[in-house]
């Protein structure tokens, strides 16, 4: 497998690979195995990777944190794929929030929750 230069587009490329594993033989692909186990198991794995990332941030070195962060992002992309969520929707949400104070954005969401 050829490697391209590291950049943020790696998430798009990885998502495409993940999508291609849907319906693949679970014996030939970890991703296919996750899809075969269903959304509950995928969600559980995401939770585990989140905890491992937190631990790496608190007590391990930068290399360990980078590795755990990569695992976390991979499992998040698998979850999105399993739910049929196109990453472009997430990127659009991030773009909407770009340049907006986190406090303002959070307050706006709370106001929206209170409407009938």
Per CATH, which architecture of the largest domain? Answer: Orthogonal Bundle
Mean pLDDT: 91
Number of domains: 2
The helix fraction, in percent, is over 70%
Unreliable runs: none
Shape: globular
What does this 3D model show about the protein?
- The protein has 116 residues and is mostly helical.
- It has two domains: 10-85, Helix Hairpins, CATH 1.10.287.1080; 86-116, no CATH class.
- The chain has six helices and no strands.
- Helix 1 (10-20) crosses helix 4 and helix 3 (39-59) packs antiparallel against helix 4.
- The longest helix has 22 residues, at 62-83.
- 12% of the residues are buried.
- The model has no long low-confidence stretch (mean pLDDT 91).
Short description:
With 116 residues, this protein is mainly alpha-helical.
List the helices and strands and how they pair.
Layout: H1 10-20, H2 30-37, H3 39-59, H4 62-83, H5 87-97, H6 102-114
Helix pairs in contact: 1-4, 3-4
Keywords, separated by commas or semicolons:
116 residues, globular, Helix Hairpins, mainly alpha, 2 domains
């Amino acid at each position: 497998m050829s490697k391209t230069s590291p950049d943020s587009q790696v998430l798009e490329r990885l998502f495409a690979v993940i999508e291609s594993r849907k319906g693949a033989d679970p014996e030939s692909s970890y991703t296919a195995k996750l899809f075969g186990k269903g959304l509950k198991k995928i969600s559980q794995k995401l939770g585990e990777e989140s905890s491992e990332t937190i631990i790496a941030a608190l007590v391990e070195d930068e290399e360990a944190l980078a590795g755990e962060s990569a695992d976390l992002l991979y499992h998040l992309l698998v979850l999105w794929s399993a739910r049929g969520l196109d990453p472009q929707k997430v990127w659009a949400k991030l773009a909407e929030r770009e340049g907006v104070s986190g406090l303002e954005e959070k307050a706006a969401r709370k106001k929206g929750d209170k409407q009938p």
